[in-house]
Design brief:
UDP N-Acetylglucosamine Acyltransferase, domain 1; 4 helices; transferase; single chain; acetyltransferase activity; Hexapep; alpha/beta; Galactoside O-acetyltransferase; Trimer_LpxA-like_sf
């Protein structure tokens, strides 16, 4: 049975980003987010965000200007707080554990563009999932790149660019991020 472009995308396989189904979903999400991000009432805004995600647990709270591509690849555990201006590019699954707190301007990016110019010119794209454990804290302007897995109780310093995976109970910071302390 032939996979859809959405199935290939979610699996991290090469897919056509301009597939009509994917274009329609991105348009729907942009329309919804434009409206939701303007809602002043916290409970209403957060319930509307949650309705667009694959799943989000209890005590989900995000400030305004939350942006993402699809929503169906975002999985968030209980007790999540996201500050202003989060961007989650969810071509592949983004999985966030429980009790995680993100500062402002956090970006989680799963798309991987081919190094080969001919593939890029042909609009081929792929992705790699991002997985974040429980009880993690991200400072402001943290960027997490495709394929990264962070363990439980990881603290990421403000302005860090996380290019590789890290184990449980570490403080990481820098560009690229490196361990600066064991917890």
């Amino acid at each position: 049975m032939k996979k859809t472009e959405r199935e290939k995308m979610t699996a991290g396989e090469a897919y056509q980003q301009f597939d009509p189904e994917l274009i329609e979903r991105r348009k729907l999400i942009r329309q919804q987010l434009k409206e939701i991000n303007q809602i002043v009432d916290n409970e209403e805004r957060n319930q509307r965000f949650k309705a667009l995600l694959a799943d989000a647990g209890d005590d989900f709270f995000v400030e305004s200007e939350f942006k993402f591509d699809y929503g169906f690849n975002i999985h968030i555990g209980d007790h999540f707080y996201g500050n202003y201006d989060m961007t989650f590019l969810d071509t592949c699954p983004i999985t966030i554990g429980s009790h995680c707190y993100f500062g402002p301007n956090v970006g989680l990016y799963t798309p991987v563009h081919p190094l080969d110019a001919a593939q890029r010119d042909a609009d081929v794209e792929l992705g790699k999932p991002i997985t974040i454990g429980n009880s993690c804290w991200f400072g402001g302007r943290v960027t997490v790149l495709p394929g990264v897995t962070l363990g439980n109780e990881v603290v990421v310093g403000a302005g860090s660019v996380v290019t590789k995976s890290f184990p449980d109970k570490v403080v990481i910071a820098g560009n690229p991020a490196r361990i600066i302390k064991q917890l």
